[in-house]
Amino acid sequence: MFLAVRDLRFAKGRFALMGAVVGLISLLVVLLTGLTAGLSRQSISAITSLPGDRVAFSTPAAGESASYASSRLSPSARDTAARQPGVTDAASLTLAPGRVEAGGRQAAVTLFAAEPGSFVAPAGLSADRVAVGEDLARDQRLATGDTVRIGGRSYAVAEVVPDASYNHTPVVWAPPSALAGTAGGGSVLVLRTGSGFDRDGFEWAVGARVMTVGDSVSAVGSYTAENGSLTLMRVLLMAVSALVVGAFFTVWTIQRTPDLAVLKAIGARTGYLVRDALSQALVLLVVGGGLGTMLAAALGRLAARSVPFVVDASTTLVPLLMLVAVGLVGAAGALRRIATVDPITALGAAR
């Protein structure tokens, strides 16, 4: 890095400006990553935390895909599903929009109705007891033992469960009786399966579409569109980063051509000059991207107080490493000029 360090010292203003550009790009990438993770968690956390390993939906109409909102599996389907080979347990789950009243305050929620005692229901769920998510408990100042009203009926809060949001609304786990008076919702089966599970045979016997819990997040209405749009933005920002870094080092290499020719004329190998250029790009990306990431993490912690935002290694360090990687790919575009510099041009530079 002998030449790289001296170049950085000689052209401090130029490299500072480029580092600021990289920092701004990393700031945007990390903020978008944290926001994407926050919105995803708020949209599907209640689904990804289901205790089963598969979800069965009613077979969608031609041209449509499975959906938690439109699935309609009757209670009799659970008994049929439980008898299928490889199914160790099956539980009905109904999702419906509703409203919860607590202390004179009302909140829109999604009711997850499950039979008390089934493996999918929280431990404290019963005919007159419900479980609420952490977000709802915090917003409505609820604790275990408090009373809430759903559909004109009172229920005691038996448990506060973590990570319980669906489609950007907090989740309340309730008995099926709480669905009276609601606008209706989707009914699915949550399955526990073993090694002998035959998916095709199960779908034919039950008349259902089966997905793993992880894959079933695509059946949540808001998740796919939101996640796809924000991911596309992040990819475009990464591409812009590669182009900007590549353009900068291409211009920088052109300006240094006489110097590189002199170095080659006195015996410097092409590999040495290439490694030096890449180390220079690495320093620029790590310093600029690191500062932008730290600023984004600080802003993200402030934003998390009012918007869904996640700050952890997956939303900070991973985007930074990806940014450094694509930046080095962009910088590699300038290496061809280094490899093709002719030492004879050193004589012209001397004149």
From TrEMBL:
Chief place of localization: membrane
Pfam family, one: FtsX
Subcellular location: Cell membrane
Keyword Cell membrane appears in the UniProt entry: yes
Keywords attached to this entry: Cell membrane, Membrane, Transmembrane, Transmembrane helix, Transport
Residue intervals passing through the bilayer: 15-39, 235-254, 281-304, 316-335
Family: Belongs to the ABC-4 integral membrane protein family.
Record protein name field: ABC transporter permease
Lineage: Bacteria, Bacillati, Actinomycetota, Actinomycetes, Micrococcales
